[in-house]
Every structure is written in C-alpha cells, then in structure tokens.
Design a protein that fits this description.
By secondary structure, this protein is α/β, with parallel strands linked by helices. It has 2 domains: 127 residues, 3-Layer(aba) Sandwich (Rossmann fold), CATH 3.40.50; 73 residues, no CATH class. It has 8 helices and 4 strands, in the order βαβαβαβααααα. The protein has a 4-stranded parallel β-sheet with strand order 2-1-3-4, sandwiched between helices. Strand 1, helix 1 and strand 2 form a beta-alpha-beta unit. The termini are close together.
C-alpha cells in the first residue's frame, strides 16, 4: 500500500495526527487527514463518503476512521462503523484478513485526550508546571479508564498548572502535546491498539 485517507471527528484530532503519524508510519506512506465538525457530522457523512471512496479508490489506498467513544457503548460504535463500511462495499479488518482489508475503524477511549494523558512526560514538556508526580497516580497508568470526560480532566490539570485559565483550547493543546509524544511509551490501551492497527495496515 502507498496511501491512507484518515477521517477524524474534529481539527484537534487532525493536528495531533499530523504530529504523530510521522513517528508511526514508514516514510514512503502518504496520507490525507479529513476533519469533521464533531462525531455526529462524521457519522452522518460517512456512508456517502465511503461509497464514493469505493468507486475511485486504487487498490493501494486504505482508509482509517477514528472516532471518540465518549460515553457510548464501544461495541455498538464499532459495529455501526463496520456496518457502514460493509454497506459501502469495503472490506473491514477481521482476524482472518490481516493484510487484505481496506478500512480500519478505531475508537479513542473515552476521548482523544486520553491519548495525551497517556504520555505524562509529553504533557510536562509541553506545559512546564504540570506536577512531576502525575504519572504515579493510578488514573494515568490506564487513562482510558478515566471517567467524567478526559478533556475536562486535561483542562483541570493544565489550569492548575497556570494554563488555559479561560478554558481549554483543544487544538492548541493537541498540537503542543502530540508534538512531544513518544508513541511506544503511551499508557493508553486504545492508543496502542490504534498504532497496532496502523502497523498491520501498512505491513
């Protein structure tokens, strides 16, 4: 394969992937990232968009859909994404077609910000003043388990450190933190599943 089309919820995911993908993908892989105006805008447009991809997409192209779990059921979201892909005539990843699928559906649990909280060192480098002992707290050994909103937790941490006193600027934070992230050190399981899927996609 030679190219990946990424479909993401919002601009903050776009800027994060722009910093992260060069650390994950081989140099010969090209990609485009298409942000939407939130989760439901992506889901609303996805059937027509995938049907259009099916009509023109070369065999060496792949698609990745990245969506937040939020407070919804993970299995239900995944099944919905898979059904949309299959209805469009695209092959999804299964246990038996490791090198032949066309589309990879991945879920950030509970939100994209859990991936940022999974790399406390990157957080500290981006925003000096974040507590040095943050990584020792149990929540940050498994940031996907944080309940009540990971972006709210990130906002609270950064505000206590003296940043974003009028509210978290998600694009700003996504850019600064992702730039300093080391993918293989991240403690978010959903982030590691995302990386694993990408590596399978390009293998």
């Amino acid at each position: 394969m030679s190219h990946i089309e990424f479909l993401v919820e919002e601009p903050s995911a776009e800027v994060a992937l722009r910093n992260l993908l060069p650390k994950i993908l081989p140099n010969h892989i090209t990609y485009l990232i298409h942000p939407h105006n939130g989760k439901y805008d992506l889901l609303r447009k996805l059937p027509k968009r995938l049907t259009a991809y099916k009509k023109w997409m070369p065999a060496e192209y792949k698609i990745v859909v990245l969506i937040d779990k939020d407070r919804e059921d993970c299995i239900s979201i995944k099944n919905n994404l898979n059904d949309i892909a299959k209805d469009a005539g695209l092959t999804i990843k299964t246990s038996v077609n490791q090198n032949t699928f066309q589309i990879l559906n991945r879920i950030a649990i509970e939100e994209l910000e859990a991936w940022f909280l999974g790399d406390v060192q990157a957080l500290e480098l981006a925003y000096p003043g974040v507590p040095k002992n943050l990584s020792q707290k149990s929540d940050f050994r498994n940031p996907d388990s944080i309940r009540g909103g990971t972006w709210e937790r990130l906002e609270t941490i950064l505000q206590h450190a003296g940043y974003f006193t009028t509210g978290l600027q998600k694009i700003n934070a996504a850019s600064s933190i992702s730039l300093r992230m080391v993918p293989e050190h991240n403690t978010s399981k959903s982030f590691q599943v995302f990386i694993s899927g990408l590596k399978t996609l390009v293998s």
